[in-house]
Amino acid sequence: MKSEFVATVSHDLRSPLTLMRGYATMLEMVGELNDQQKGYVRKIITGVENMSRLVNNLLDLGRIEIGVGLQVEHVTVLDIIERVTSALQLQASQKNISLSVELPKDMPDAVEADEGLLNQAVHNLVENAVKYTPEGGRIVIRTLSQPGYLTFSVEDSGLGISPEDLPRLFEKFYRGKQREARSQPGSGLGLAIVHSVATNHGGRVWVDSTVGKGSTFYLQIPLTQPKESKTA
Ligand code: ADP
């Protein structure tokens, strides 16, 4: 019931948010604004965007938790990596962070998974790496293949995670206690989504991290899904 409530409410929140963002953006087009007014409009837009992000995350989590069922298909591993890197390249370049990909020769071409969810999970990991890595850092996305499994790893040279945060990192709404990490916008749902996606595919997610040096997140899923969960 809780998940259904979350999904319904989040959905009804989306349309007024779109409206608010639209009108806030249009204010400047219908008349001259002074600098203070422009500043206020920017603050409104940032607030609305943060709320939209939260609502979208709640919707995703709601969908996964209700167990709508995985839309399992053959997903090309390279497609996922390319989609994620092209979506986040600009954000990385703005912080002068190098974003590279290293793939082993024996990497499986495809994996059975829900493409949308897998894409979202890898996206969240790389987005966090960009968020929690200071200017001039480095991020490497890799895949590791073990028999029967595909593992994505995302290594960053960022803030790292303190040992007191590690056990709770994948909980809903949990945010790290470090001040530098808190200065980034977020609702603490990104890793909860990655965790749900991993477990729904019979996989897992874990992290190795050292404060001040960086973190490596691993997302491992089986190459094939049980027959009954396949839709095609
Ligand atoms: P959010 O980023 O919205 O806070 P997440 O669930 O994505 O939520 O992450 C939870 C917390 O884990 C973050 O608040 C941050 O403290 C920590 N974290 C996640 N990814 C990284 C990373 N790559 N480096 C350092 N800290 C991270």
Provide a descriptive summary of the structure in words.
By secondary structure, the protein is α+β, with helices and mostly antiparallel strands. 48% of the residues lie in helices and 21% in strands. A five-stranded mixed beta sheet has the order 2-4-5-7-6, covered by helices on one side. Strand 6 (204-210) and strand 7 form a beta hairpin. The structure holds adenosine-5'-diphosphate (ADP). The site of adenosine-5'-diphosphate (ADP) has 20 residues, from helix 4 and helix 6. Residues 128-129, 132, 156, 158-159, 161, 169, 174-176, 181, 186-192, 215 line the site of adenosine-5'-diphosphate (ADP).
Please state how the strands of the largest beta sheet are arranged side by side.
2-4-5-7-6
Helix content: 40-55%
Give the overall form: globular
H/I helix tally: 6
Percent of residues in β-strands: 15-25%
Bound molecules: adenosine-5'-diphosphate
Classify the secondary structure makeup into a structural class. Answer: alpha+beta
- E-strand count: 7
Low-confidence stretches: none
Arithmetic mean of pLDDT = 91
**Rounded radius of gyration (Å):** 19 Å
Distance between the termini: 29 Å
Major sheet summary line: 5 strands, mixed
H/E topology pattern: HHEHEEHEEHHEE
